[in-house]
Design brief:
Layout lengths: L2 E6 L3 H16 L3 E2 L8 E6 L4 H21 L4 E6 H6 L1 H6 L5 E3 L7 H9 L6 E3 L24 E5 L1 E2 L10 H5 L3 E2 L2 H13 L4 E5 L19 H10 L6 E5 L8 H9 L6 E3 L7 H7 L5 H14 L4 E8 L6 H14 L3 E6 L17 H24 L5 E9 L7 E5 L4 E4 L9 E9 L4 E3 L6
Helix pairs in contact: 7-8, 9-11, 12-13
Length: 449
């Protein structure tokens, strides 16, 4: 059977989608290639959140097409995901060597379309139409050959977004919100736990919007908190994470869930985007700086060791130096353990792309550098504060940077590296932190449990 190589750009949703497509293809008899150079089919799962991500995928495909045109003209090339959804047929018109374009609601059709192309039934396929029920269409998880199965897995609970932030193209590429049923999600989690998975991360564009139109609140608990309770009851699971929420979804029921659901780890990645109320209003975010600070205070009051992460955008149209100073001061006040910083990128079709006050790249670069320095300094201080303390980790396997060592994650999502062995994989264990590096903790192997 043909071999397939899948390269993924973008977020954890994209990683999970690639994993599901790979599992689907394996089930059909395909094999997974180690690199594009040896594959019969090369698929790029794309991201459209920033122009840079789109350009990377386009440049990669352009180079692959030129290489294979000379050396291996029979290789099937395809785009999947968000850029495929937004650009559709345009991608084949721009790159005639591309054979397949699959949108975000059609991942489960990938194997069928590839079969048709490889058998000569069709020459080109563009499939980007909406499909009812697509949020529940793929549930398989990837097995890495004969290697041990991962102890952590992503579980998609919903697709789409109704938020319509002025800078974001996701509602266009992923469509409106569509949630899976609680029973369906719990059944998948049970299957994963039976296969050795100890930790699940619930995924959605805005997970805290889960089921809000389909599932009524019960005893003051939102649909999302009801889902957390149901997954919490799954035997064999030790940890539950979720991403990505919206600050508007952090009601008291969710804050309190951290204190009463032991499997729900004390880690919250809550995108704030800006510390300026004026910019937040222009972004159409629906909350204020004061409300965000209230959420973080409540979370840390509930769980003092709560790990907090966020997303921040610099250089939004019309952002003044005063607005940017508000973002800097928010970072100082919140003291995030981790923050992803993005330079504002114009996305065609979004309201922000047409706003006055578009800032030059040099201003974005300078503000990005200043904010990055601040969040890295704060994070380093928070990591250093853990030296000499014992932390609980779930051991995931060999370290990606040094396969001779093993790594695990703390409950608040910090990576810990130690000199372990395969017998530690999948264990929840305490380690003593000996030193801190750049976003990594190192445990002394002599005092492992």
């Amino acid at each position: 059977m043909p071999s397939v190589y899948i390269k993924t750009y973008g977020c954890q949703m994209n990683e999970r989608d690639s994993e599901a497509v790979a599992a689907q293809l394996l089930a059909k008899g395909y094999t997974l290639a180690a690199s594009a150079s040896t594959a019969d089919v090369v698929l790029l799962n794309t991201c459209s959140v920033r122009d840079f991500a789109e350009q990377k995928a386009l440049n990669k495909m352009t180079n692959l097409a030129a290489e294979f045109r000379r050396s291996r003209p029979g290789v099937v090339l395809g785009f999947l995901g968000c850029m495929a959804q937004s650009r559709g047929k345009e991608l084949i018109e721009r790159l005639p060597d591309v054979d397949l374009v699959i949108g975000t609601q059609k991942f489960h059709r990938t194997a069928d379309h590839l079969d048709s192309i490889l058998k000569g039934g069709v020459s080109k396929v563009v499939d980007t139409e909406e499909e009812t029920g697509s949020e529940s269409a793929i549930r398989e998880h990837l097995l890495h050959g004969n290697a041990p199965r991962s102890v952590a897995a992503f579980v998609s609970i919903m697709q789409g977004c109704n938020q319509h932030c002025t800078f974001c193209i996701v509602p266009h590429t992923r469509g409106g919100e569509r949630s899976r049923g609680i029973e369906d999600i719990v059944a998948e989690c049970r299957e994963l736990a039976a296969g050795g998975v100890r930790e699940v991360t619930l995924l959605g564009q805005i997970v805290t919007s889960y089921g809000r139109r389909e599932i009524p609140a019960v005893d003051g608990k939102s649909a999302f908190v009801q889902l957390l309770e149901a997954v919490h009851a799954v035997e064999g699971l030790d940890r539950i994470r979720f991403t990505s929420p919206h600050p508007k979804g952090y009601g008291d029921d969710l804050v309190e869930a951290y204190g009463r659901l032991p499997k729900l780890v004390e880690n919250a990645h809550i995108p704030v985007q800006s510390g300026s109320d004026r910019v937040l209003k222009l972004m159409h975010r629906g909350y204020t700086r004061a409300r965000f600070l209230e959420i973080t205070r409540k979370l840390r009051a509930q769980v003092p060791d709560m790990g907090l992460g966020t997303d921040l955008i610099v250089g939004f149209p019309g952002e003044t130096e005063e607005d940017f100073a508000e973002t800097l001061s928010l970072a100082e006040e919140c003291r995030f353990d981790q923050a992803y910083i993005f330079k504002y990128s114009q996305r065609q079709g979004t309201p922000a792309a047409e706003m006055p006050g578009q800032l030059p790249d040099e201003v974005k670069e300078e503000r990005n550098a200043r904010l990055l320095e601040a969040v890295n300094r704060i994070a380093a201080e928070r990591y250093e504060a853990l030296v000499g303390r014992r932390v609980q980790i779930l051991v995931e396997g060999p370290s990606k940077k040094n396969p001779e060592r093993y790594m695990g994650r703390t409950r608040c999502n910090k990576i810990v590296v130690f000199e372990g062995s395969e017998r530690h994989r999948g264990r929840v264990m305490d380690v003593a932190v000996e030193r801190a590096g750049s976003f990594t903790l190192y445990a002394n192997p002599d005092i492992l449990d």
